[in-house]
Please model this.
Amino acid sequence: MTKVPYVRLIRQFAQNTPQRVTLEFEDARVTCLELELRSNRLARAYAQYGVRQGDLVTICLPNAPEYFFACVAAWKLGAVPNPLSAGLPDTERNAIVERADPALIVGVRKPVGQRPTLPPDFEPDPALPDTPLPEKIAPHERALTSGGSTGVPKLIMPGNPAVYDVDNPSPLFTPRNAMLVPGPLYHAGPYSAAWGAVFAGGKAVIMHRFDAARCLQLIEKHCVDRVFFVPTMLNRIWRLPQQVRTRYDLSSLESVVSGGAPCPQWLMRAWIEWLGPQRLCEGYGPSERIGRTFITGEEWLRKPGSVGRAMDGCRIRILDPQGRELPAGEIGEIYMMPATGSGSTFVYRGAERRTTEDGWESVGDMGHLDEDGYLFIADRRTDMIVCGGRNIYPAEIEAALNAHPDVRASVVVGLPDDDLGQRIHAIVECEAPVGDELLRSHLKTQLVPYKWPHSFEYVSEPLFNEAGKVRRSALRAQRVAGCGN
Model:
């Protein structure tokens, strides 16, 4: 096993293939040499602001070349990039900054406490050298942020340092021509896809923001062979008018990966029928890297709805609330054990691990295993609705609602109810209200009656962000407050 520091790979690419384009944007290109030289000078500027080995550098930059320069500059000082959305409200961003305690904040114009900040358009002093720095290795490759189910920010730092295993590159993120990255780089999937392509010596095509039709144009233009989509993106592409969706040549595609959230069965089947099962696959794996699963399109047709079997030597158990292992087919909390052992894959800042006495770990997702070891995701433990004594999993209802042609997306939450404990409330994103009775009629063919929503609410603004994530706890809290409870 040969593991090479990220910064050494960047330097070697600059020496061996200086003019090769490694990052392609819709309005800019970055060569291997430019990535090396710009990040060298920027690293020296960061050092002047006090960044040292092991520090965090919070990076509030959009999907742009400057984001990549900033990450590499941090690594060159042995520091850990902490990417955040450039559009975070001050209050939310500042809460994360307090948790992260970075040595430097990049991409922010206003002061954040006493910490040094640099604006988005910061340029280092041109007198600073752009020659190589002494090689350092960050103790963690990144520090991504999650609000989790509680809304309280926590940082997830992988146990592995900033090194790349050149002998075992991920086939999902090793492009032959180009890797399309349509999602925001402060989320794990797009982050892994973009850097995976760069470190594999390939090209990453970065979108500033997701646009369904533009995705297809870029696949054709750059002969993209790999892409990572969250289900929301798959859905929006599928909802394009057929004449738009079929206008582009997608023959270069070899791997379309769905991840970040369970893909509804109807949607995965639609894509398989469109592009073929050889090109579609789905994966599941928490940012904590306690384990992962994977399923090909061919397998999925035999196991519809599954996210696959355990990979990389990890093991999976399904436990009930008392910690007892459940048999195949019964829904419980998903616990994983990585091949490297308990507690080996991540460090939290701002949260406690959820573990069993013998070291199995969970991130709160629910699901079941079938008799062949295939995993099926139900929902998050904290999202489960208890209605009339029954456990209701919102994802199942949302998948049924989203199958309606007039529904763009939906979020189902439980609201307090004196009689039922919780009642089922569906927030439906659509261009114009679909109508309660029409939706109930649609659901009658897909769900048993006790899973039908008791109330519907129609919204036109997007429920999910560009990364396919939803602030479910915030949506629930807003509705609970509105109920006067």
